Amino acid sequence: MARGLPKKAKLRDVDKIIAVSSAKGGVGKSTVAVNLALSLAMQQKRVGILDTDIFGPSIPKLLNLTGGEPNVTESNRLIPLSNYGVKAMSIGFLLPDQDSPVVWRGLMVMKALQQLLHDVEWGGLDVLVLDLPPGTGDVQLTITQQIVVDGAVIVSTPQDIALIDAVKGINMFKKVDVPVLGMVQNMSVFVCPNCNHETHIFGSQGVQREAARLGTEVLGSIPLHPSICTLSDAGTPVVVAEPDTANAMAYRAIADKIIHKLSI
Amino acid sequence: MATASDLPPSLSKIRHIVLVLSGKGGVGKSSITTQLALSLVQLGYSVGVLDIDLTGPSLPRMFGLESKKIHQSSQGWVPVYTDASKRLCVMSIGFLLKDRGDSVVWRGPKKSAMIRQFVRDVVWGELDYLLIDTPPGTSDEHISIAEQLRDANPDGAVLVTTPQAVATADVRKELSFCRKVGLDILGVVENMSGFLCPHCSECSHIFSKGGGEDLAKQYGVPFLGAVPIDPQFVLMIEEQHATASATTVGDQRPDVEGGTGFSLIEKYKECKLCPIFARITEQVVATTKDKVRQ
Q: Which residue in B159, B235, B22 sits closest to A26, CA to CA?
């Protein structure tokens, strides 16, 4: 029997897999993942999004699918829920009530994650976007060891305290042989809706500096705009609600780059 | 009979233990922990800060202590003091990493073992307050610290959220977690609550508004206060790094170890958030004052 790490498998029916990660919490991974998935769907791709955050699943809220209960196929595989042309799966759909915490140790988290990875009937996808949780622990290890991830997109805000963790995330992907497609600078600048004055609330150019240092590309910069948050909370992400605004175009441009890089 | 004998000796001279939790990542737990610590020191208390976020340790950076290392003494690990006055000390896995980019990619059991060491094998000494900064979620780290502190009778937890629904949704879970493990909830802090444009003073609710206060009301816990976004605070933290790495000439202050001339404790007094935090801290002190641990 061969010794060593488990062999990475490709997911059945899924052509390419992208991981949206950051290691730092709260930089906008889920918001970026959802808007990217929607942008890819707008380019006529068959897209799925898998929420791998077991403790704080945000995808149901962002896609206006809270309270949704997935059915199973005859072979007991989960059928993803759909909205805005994107198929989605999250542990959020499988919890009895929204406020119940998932207080599990690593081993149980892994079992749940295995199901989400291998037992979902995606029905043929061009690309599956994985929304990763913060950190560099069990979830990230299991995903990168068990399945072939074609590329990772690292999201960060400009400040140092976020970049430290983003760099850890990049180093983690290098350790497990996952290609890093590039970085996304989120919450890059705040434009006052009243006077249009620009303030770099979380610092500026941090991501550009770090990307240059690490020899990786900056895929795009997304500004900090109150409407991105309000639309997300309402379950109508900006790419769907206001597709032609500068905010939405920022996400769509990143999606185009990814399509090109991975030949989707 | 109270199980005082099960109390880890390392914690025996600590008067109050407060956890800072959230459930959601990136709401500013470490930033709130840092400011709470600074405010408590300004009120004259001695404070220790324990960082149990093993994969994303932010505290060394927040306190400008990134270049420091932990020392081993005969009784255990010595925490890193911010200055010679020894009013404030920090323990974090960040001090054990060779390089700031080193990633800690560990599964649960290893993380739990590390947390156990941080609680039992650190020479905390005599402290008024031990603040514990946590990672997001409700997993190994949180279960471990709840177990480790079971015999230490912690005062409770401060929950941090930002106003928007995606954040409060996760914080609700953390509130339920606290109730499950019998941890008192000292109150909710709503962070990143509004931003004042420095040009026209218009207040923008970048991350929505009111979510934190609504959450506190819904769960019947105290609302400790709303903290706005202050770019000056971000800058102050970032500047520590710049000051520490530059060679300082003629700016050596005798009370600062390493002589960088930048005292965060002093600098924080000039920050706009300082008075806001003073009010939050006073409430925490008032609530914990009556809780006697030993």
A: B22
Interface of A with B in 111-170 (CB under 8 A): 133-138, 140-141, 159-162, 164-165, 167-169
For residue B132, list its beta bridge partners.
B19, B50
Inter-chain residue contact A26 with B205, CB threshold 8 Å:
no
B139–A230: do the CB atoms touch at under 8 Å? no
What's the pLDDT tens digit per position in B46-76? 999 999 999 888 899 899 998 899 999 999 9
**Is the reported ipTM for this assembly greater than 0.90?**
no
Output the six-digit token pair for A253.
């441009």
Q: How far is B136 from chain A (nearest CA, A)?
A: 7
Pairwise CB contact (< 8 Å): B231 & A201? yes
Total-model pTM:
0.83
Distance CA B47, CA B39 (A): 10
Chain B interface, best mutation among A90, A103, A107, by max B CB count within 10 A? A103
Is A39 exposed, middle or buried, given 0-12, 13-18 or 19+ CB atoms closer than 10 A?
buried
Give chain A positions within 8 Å (CB) of B234: 159, 201-203
The single-letter DSSP state of residue B258 is: T
Bridge-based pairing of strands A190-191 and A198-199 is antiparallel
